Amino acid sequence: MQRRRLRIALLTLPALVASVLTVPAPVGADPAAPTATAGSGRSPLEVQESVRLVRIQLTGADMLDKVVAAGFDLEHGLRRVPSGIEGEAVVTAAQTAELQAMGVQILGDDEGFAWSEEADGGLQALRTQADQPHGHEATVRVVRADWFTTKGQGFLYVEARTTEGQQADPIVTMQLENDSGRRTSFGFARTMSRFVDSGQYMFHRNLFKLDARPNQIRVTSSTGGVATGDVSDWLEDAPPPLTENRGYKSDFVDGYRNPQQLYSRAKEIARQYPDIAEIVYLPNQTNGYQRKAQATIGGTGQSAVVVSSAAWGHEGGNDITVDFVERPEANLPLSVEVAGKAIRVLLAKDASAGVASTATEVAAALEAQSQGLIDRAHPYRTNAGTGIVAPTSGPVALTDSLDQKRVGAPEGEVPRGPVTIPVLRIGKHRDGRNPGVLIQAQDHAREWVPATTSLESAERLVHNYKTDKETKKIVEGTDVFFILSNNPDGANYSFYNFASQRRNMTNHCPDENADPARRNSWGVDLNRNYRVGSGHDGYSGASTSCVSDTYQGPAELSEPESKNIIWLVEKYSNIKFMMSVHSNGGQLFWQPGAYIADGRITTPRPPLGDEAFYWQSADRILSQVKAHRETVVTPENVGGSSDVLYSSAGNVREDLYHTYGIYAFGWEVGGSVYNPATGDWQGGSFQPVWEGDPNLVSGHAETMEYANGIMEMFRVAADWGKDKKDPTSKLVPGGGKYSKPVDVRFETNEPATIYYTTDGSRPTLQSPRYEATEFREPGEVFHVSETTTFHWFSVDAAGNIEQNYDPTKNDRRNNYRKATITIRTK
């Protein structure tokens, strides 16, 4: 009989290098735009303000939501602390003042941060069992207690829940105690911090630095609850890293790469290794590293006029000049003269020979009479344009402001037109038989390390294929798709114009935000432009403001870059895994990725089996990161992204998982690195210096360690593809006769989802699904107070069904699992 191997359908939300140059990281603030020349008539506000990275403190999640909704660019390195949330913001001087007006505390320029012993800091933690495990009467639960070491120092991360936590002001003080070894009593107490997000109690948690690993911890609530839990080892159960294999080659990338270099190297790899590599071209071209040429003429008051060319700057727009001309006579009409690319606006004169043209009138004349040279002309921002326009002192040149070259950036002309993005596909069998893995880097332009990390991983695959047996297994057992830069237009802008650019370069702004001083604020956040849990459906974490760094776009999938991802996974349906690589912060996360703030209603959480598979995969991936230089991504930074980071409405991971059943990870590379010399944790940055202290933050070290993790993800996918073994499950403590009510739960030998019934019917895929007690916790506990029969089956992450049971057919064998709990009370 053919074995049953199903991929369970997931809920879909309704509506719901050739020539390589090393580029040093930018130093200091972004350079301002070119200074206006004398007599140009340009407003000084056309010169974009410099930005800086500052440390901030917010009172809590509600303030975070308000700050993001206001369009502020918050760095990903958010940290929960007892007094609220600390993080980093990319801001101008004016925005700093605006944040302060909102109640945000500015802590200073970002120079790393320190976690005290009291500071905040999967299902692997299911080994943690409490005295009151998860029963109906428990008031305190130990969710997880994880021990890890880094740089020779030991740390313990603890999460616990109390039933009193949701109170506005709970009379709860979590006290953490630990033993110091076998047959020793519990010692000193530590206070835990209450974590509330969007008004909802999550849990209490803390990260503690300890001299020795405890075996158990005890958590006590001031309301009377007590729970004891075993301590687990974090990042200890993983295969040996590939880098330990004899002859294994690594360290191929020696500096940052712009999109042209990334794509050139991808094509060269395909030419060099045609037996295992090829290029797939995405069908939707980007909008291009290009802009209309512009000028703001006449200051910023009611007489100011913003002018934009019809042609792209590099296609003639930059050659246009506009001159507002006063003539000596009286009673003259407003008119426009065009000679080549020179536009003269002959201003109207009244009866006393005074200039009489308003900004609104001049704008209309330019659009109507410029012989197609001017596409848009309008008053400045929200002005009514009622002011009388003053003559200019000479012709004002329009510019697309893309002629600036950043110090240290690669030389050579940047392609200006639309870009066709190449996908580097690596695999011995590229015919759909093997599980596909999509690696997508640089959705956000300023994030340079994800691109080098992804390229390093591709280099390792092709260079080690013939000499390393583990790499050979990957190449012959998976089908890998690399998008080395999914945002080439924005990335070029980050390299050559504005290092802090996050979005693409598509300008959807109406006139009020379309003047050239706004040029660093245009574009769509590509990771807010997808269809599931989107801002358009009311989820938090995306903005409707076209000048916000989390602008979701005018519609779902409005951008060619996001359309391309959907095209790719639909064309290559064997893609079962995806990693969206970002920086920085060190988080590894998955679904749920978004929530509706009112009530914190998340997108559907993965089934318990999928959640367990994510945690198991994370343990393997992050263990390989640690193997490079002991960088530890801590447990608090792993899990559903809306639980460990914030709500990201319309992110790509949500769409791929819920729509296509793809295990979709998000990764913020560049996690904090512990410095034993200072006792501090040094945070990452978007463009860290490439070479630096190998034990601290540097682009090179991050590239190598996180490439380790991507390689392990390939091994996870290869193992998944070879998995043909059924899972097993049991009911604990199991069927039998009991003299009083009993608590029972399901256990599985591997990550698996359980479907069950208690009414005597046969279980199907429509039966109740065994759920977690709470997010980040193990399965629920059934309090059985009367005789009950359980029927169930389990399905593992690869779709194998226990005992080869077919839940889609009424098989008379009924080879599902069965157990009866008989309660005989006196």
UniProtKB/TrEMBL annotation:
- Work out whether the entry's keyword set contains Ribonucleoprotein: no
Coiled-coil regions in this chain? none
**Gene3D superfamilies for this protein:** Zn peptidases
Do you know which InterPro entries this protein is assigned to? GH29D-like_dom, Peptidase_M14
Q: Where is the active site?
A: E668 (proton donor/acceptor)
Q: Which cofactor does it need?
A: Zn(2+)
What Pfam families does the record point to?
A: CHB_HEX_C_1, Peptidase_M14
The alphabetized UniProt keywords are: Hydrolase, Metalloprotease, Protease, Signal, Zinc
Q: Which SUPFAM superfamilies does the record associate with it?
A: Zn-dependent exopeptidases
Supply one GO CC term from the record: extracellular space
PANTHER family, alphabetized:
PROTEASE FAMILY M14 CARBOXYPEPTIDASE A,B, SLL0236 PROTEIN
Protein name as it appears in the record: Peptidase M14 domain-containing protein
